[in-house]
Amino acid sequence: MLDYRLSDETEALRKTVQEFAREVIAPQIGEFYERDEFPTEIVRQMGELGLFGLPFPEEYGGAGGTYFDLCVALEELARVDSSMAITVEAGVSLGAMPIYRFGTPEQKQEWLPRLCSGEALGAFGLTEPGGGSDAGATRTTARLEDGQWVINGSKAFITNSGTDLTQLVTVTAVTGTRPDGGKEISAIIVPSGTTGFTVGQRYSKVGWNASDTRELSFDDVSVPEENLVGERGRGYAQFLSILDEGRIAISALSVGLAQGCVDESVKYAGEREAFGQPIGKNQAVQFMIADMEVRASTARLAYYRAAEKMLRGEPFKREASIAKLYSSEIAMDNARYATQVHGGYGFMNEFPVGRFYRDAKILEIGEGTSEVQRMLIARDLGVG
């Protein structure tokens, strides 16, 4: 029989992260959100808690856990705040994982200990202005001159790219032409502060206001040839595989937001009185909250299934897309329902559901839009 109970170790992790989110993040994150400010000290504390090293081996300073452990932690963080959840998700899945999966032993030894401890953050430079879902439409170039990669171009919507903790960005760049005439795309590490590497101002965003997102530009940026990550010409394929894993993590984050909407609605329905009784006595409110719980519970099973296949070494692309598609869309649904339960207060940023509503939409866009997920699912079924 299937057993979806968490192991003792993972359950202990879940409770630890839950306590940290409720006691450390919840009381102060609203102020950072309103100020559109990145909470460096909270991120340092998450590093001290070991969250950035969860799926990495102990030899690099990691916790020796699994990718599923990371997902469970992300769910608990997002039940309280998505800005901090995406900071961890991007730092692990997009910042450190490419180096762990494809980097040389020297690159791993140089970067992973700092990334696992949270002392440093890494970023993932794939998307470009005007590129959107067409991630292969890379215009950034890198030419090899006298043992140095010389990089020119720009990237857009890059998370964790300009914080005080950011120390590197791994970027995709066109390094030549394939035999079939297509672009040869490679991945290259660019340390922060490299001459010609400019980090733009923080975007003014609808949501995730306490996270860091910026545009990057590269003007004759020169880095050593050994900063190449993985095989030359395999950068695009490497990043696509990283995105497959990341979709499970985004699904877990989405489930956390959806469950946070349930948590806040249950609490509010028991406290708010109208017409002489708590609004939770009204069947209309009961049904809305029940439907929210059904969606969150079902979405959780979807990301559990995708993570299960991934950890067993089985193909999981379809399951990852299903989990990401469904959980991101029900997160948006739950945010809308929770705002309705809260009435006017749901429109106020001082209430968590106001932030949840603003944070939910990007989940249907980031790391592959809902349309891309449907395309991947259909393609895996042999349709089209």
Describe the structure.
The chain is of the alpha+beta class. The protein has three domains: 8-121, Butyryl-Coa Dehydrogenase, subunit A, domain 1 (Orthogonal Bundle), CATH 1.10.540; 123-233, Butyryl-CoA Dehydrogenase, subunit A, domain 2, CATH 2.40.110.10; 237-380, Butyryl-CoA Dehydrogenase, subunit A, domain 3. It has ten helices and ten strands. The protein has helices at residues 8-35, 40-48, 67-78, 82-102, 105-117, 235-271, 283-311, 317-342, 352-360, 370-380; strands spanning 121-125, 141-145, 148-159, 166-177, 183-191, 197-199, 213-224, 228-229, 273-274, 277-278. The chain has a four-stranded mixed beta sheet. Strands 2-3-7-6 form a four-stranded antiparallel beta sheet, covered by helices on one side. Strands 9-10 form a two-stranded antiparallel sheet. A hairpin with a 2-residue loop joins strand 2 (141-145) and strand 3. Helix 1 (8-35) packs across helix 3, helix 6 (235-271) packs antiparallel against helix 9 and helix 8 (317-342) packs antiparallel against helix 9 (352-360). The chain is globular and about 80 Å long. The model has no long low-confidence stretch (mean pLDDT 96).
